[in-house]
Each structure stands twice: as structure tokens, then as C-alpha cells.
Amino acid sequence: MGLSAAAPLWGPPGLLLAIALHPALSVPPRRDYCVLGAGPAGLQMAYFLQRAGRDYAVFERAPRPGSFFTRYPRHRKLISINKRYTGKANAEFNLRHDWNSLLSHDPRLLFRHYSRAYFPDARDMVRYLGDFADTLGLRVQYNTTIAHVTLDKDRQAWNGHYFILTDQKGQVHQCRSLRLNSGNAFGKKYPLIRASYESKGSRGLFILGTASHSVDYRKSAGGFIHGFRYTVRAVHRLLEHRHHSVTWPATELPITQLTSSIVRRVNEASGLYQMFGVLADVILLKENSTAFEYLEEFPIQMLAQLETLTGRKAKHGLFVINMEYGRNFSGPDKDVFFDDRSVGHTEDAWQSNFLHPVIYYYRYLPTEQEVRFRPAHWPLPRPTAIHHIVEDFLTDWTAPIGHILPLRRFLENCLDTDLRSFYAESCFLFALTRQKLPPFCQQGYLRMQGLVSTESLWQHRVESRLLRDYAPTGRRLEDSSQQLGDQEPLGSPLAPGPLAQSVDSNKEEL
Q1: Would you say the pTM of this structure is higher than 0.90?
Q2: I need a surface site. Which of 37, 172, 349, 443 has the fewest CB within 10 A?
Q3: Which has more confidence, 25 or 163?
């Protein structure tokens, strides 16, 4: 039923008022996104929506955000640690040990500025969340209780329907997509949701925060701030592509930086570290493996749908970097302090028990059936090749021989190429004697780039026992009295010289 443009406006005195109040004719405010609850997850989602410039509103029944923490926990002490000093200045690494801060671009909004206690008081969390919302100017409607939610089917809507929200005053709000962050809105402890955090019953309804822990219950940290701050970001990225055609953020780099990119992420990434087994980094190879795209913190249970969900293509193979514990390390009846629980040798890395990086290589993107029927207790389907980086007590995977060299060899075997770095002299020699040059020489030396070696560089690598000795022609290294600062003239010919001393074969390849 509709109104004609030429319809008369006269009639009984109350007719015009009745028409204006008729549910079918009154148009409630329509927003793209509605977020229920201004707790940590709701504010985190509001932050990402605001940074993206989206139309959204947050509805909070209390007069301020984080009302849960005004009453709970009863003993008023948070059990989430507040480690203010880690010994490092890397902000991303420090988030590994910051279990209370939300993600933002403002360094002032880190929880360590609100409490010095290792286990903070709950009042500090209330104050922190209030400042987070106020400082960033998040659009939160306080004292608004959403009492009723219904669906209004419409083919024009994003999900085939609109969400109709009615508050305690009877005011109606209309939304294209709904985020539910209230932890006590379900009959059971956790709702049934997909690995993308979307409700199995209503398309466009996403469950965030503590309630989303059903995805990784007793597996990871998704039920806590230091976990769901990353899953909220993943959901936001999924919806940015679904509704606004924004591809998943990625960094494109030459293949020569593959090893260093992985080493950097496994040593500093906080989302990869906290949401182990749930969020993983994905590396998409380009044609002929000359370059790659690096995607961070993708929900690995959605790997089969990666192209659809991210807008990226995986036609030439991919690597997945996941953090895992040993499959038999912990459990209700397990003794985590058993003898020989620590693995220290590279050849035994696959038996590592503590949290460590695992790299999966797939020639082709796995299918949904392969993901669904993967081996028991495996986070991913059986790969073409797999590599475990041996566990480290300090979670520091930077040892040249124990960590980096085995990783590089694994990547080289998968790609059938040489990922080492070379001096310009070596690239020149390869160009004259080989049919196929290493990527480092192709992308560097042949493009008028590269590092020309000097006497001090050669001496340093020999004294460090990293490589074999190559001394300048006609000179003996042991007769040279030059100091490390002296340099051989650029472009001087270098030829292989005698070995200064026996060098381990592993070190020759660094």
C-alpha cells in the first residue's frame, strides 16, 4: 500500500497523524551497521567502522561504556596481566604481553597508562573504556536498551533483510548489518556461529567479544580482550570486502624478502601469537614465484573461501603461517611437566610441544571438503609440504642455524629457487656461468643494484665463520695487516682463496 502524490490531504482531523504513525508508512532511521553493547568488543568494532568512514551506531543500555566491569569481577581484580615493560620498544611485540588494551592508532590509549598493577583494578578498566570512547569520538547512544529485534525481508538489502531494532522507548532503528557484543544475551553459554563469526541462523548477524569464544573454546584466546580485539578486526575486514569491495589488506614484496618477512612476523606479531590456531598469516605467491602478497591474521577455517572473502587470488600456490602447540602437549589428563618435554634440535622440531611457528605449503588452495575432512586435531588440511620451526623458551626464533637456515631451505625446496643474498661480484660470476640466476641477482644486480664487497666485509664474514674465505687475487689474508675500516678499491677482482679454517657446511649457506 502506498500514497499517491496527488492524494488529498483533507479529511478527519486525526487522519494525517494516523498516517504518519502507521508502521508501514513511517521510516525509521536506517544505518549500515548497528552494534549492540559498548563493552570492549563493541568499542573495538566502532573504532574500525569509524576509521573506515562507515555509517554506524553503538547502542549501550548503561550511561557509560564497560558497565560490566562496574560490577564484575566481584573481587575487583582483573586476571588479565598488565605487563608494562617487556624490554623492547616494538609496539606490536609489546601487545603480546598487554592483555587489556584495545587496538587503535593513538599510543595514549594503551592500558599501561591507566594502571601500574600487574593485575589491575576493574575500575581502571571502566575508566580506560570511557576514555577510549570519548577520545576517539565513537558514536555511542547511552541509556538505550534494545528490547526487540526482528527481520524485515527486502531483496534490496545486503543480506536479503533489514534488522529492525526497537528500544525501551519504542523508537525503531533499522540496520543493514548487526553486531551483537552482549555476553549474556543467549540461553546457553555460547551461540552457534561460523568460523567467520557470523550467526548460522541469520545472515548479517555477527557475534563478537566473549560470546564469540565458541569458535575457539578451550583452544585459543578468543574469549578475552587480548584475543577478540584481533577477531573483531578480522570480521571488519571480511565485511569491508563483502559490502564495500575493499580487498583484504596485503603487502606485496619481492620473493627475496620471503624469509625475512616470515621471521619478522613470527617474532613480533601479536595477533598471530594470541589467536594461535585460529588466525594465521597467508602468503599468496605470484606467477613464477617472483613476488608474493602477505595477508595478516586471516581466519584459517575459512581458508577454502579465501578468494571470495578477501578479493585476493591464490592461483600460484600459498604458504600459511600458524602458531601451534604440540598436539599431545596439554589436556585434562596431561602432565605438561613431563620429562623431555622440551625439544632443542632442529631435526626434532616437528615434536615441539610449546608454542612455535608451523608453515604449511599448498600448491593449490584447499577445497571446502578438504578443510572439513582434515585429519583429526589438525588446524588445516594436509599440505603439500610442512615445516616446524623448533620451539624456543623465549619465543625468539632468530637463531641463524637453528631457526632461519632450516626455514630458508624449506622455502627453497617448495619454490625450487635460491633465496640467498649475494654480493655483486658473485652475481656477476653467476651471470657468466649459469643459465638461471638466483632471484636476488635478478631483482638486484641486473637492475643496477647490489652490495659491492670490501676487504672489511670479507674479513668480517671469515672471522665470524659464516662463509668460506675469498681473498683478493695475489694476496693472502693472513699477511694482511689492514684494519677492519680499510676497504679494497671498488670493482677490484676477487677470486676464491684457500680456506682460512674448516667451516661448518651449514654456515656456508647463510
Answers
A1: no
A2: 172
A3: 163
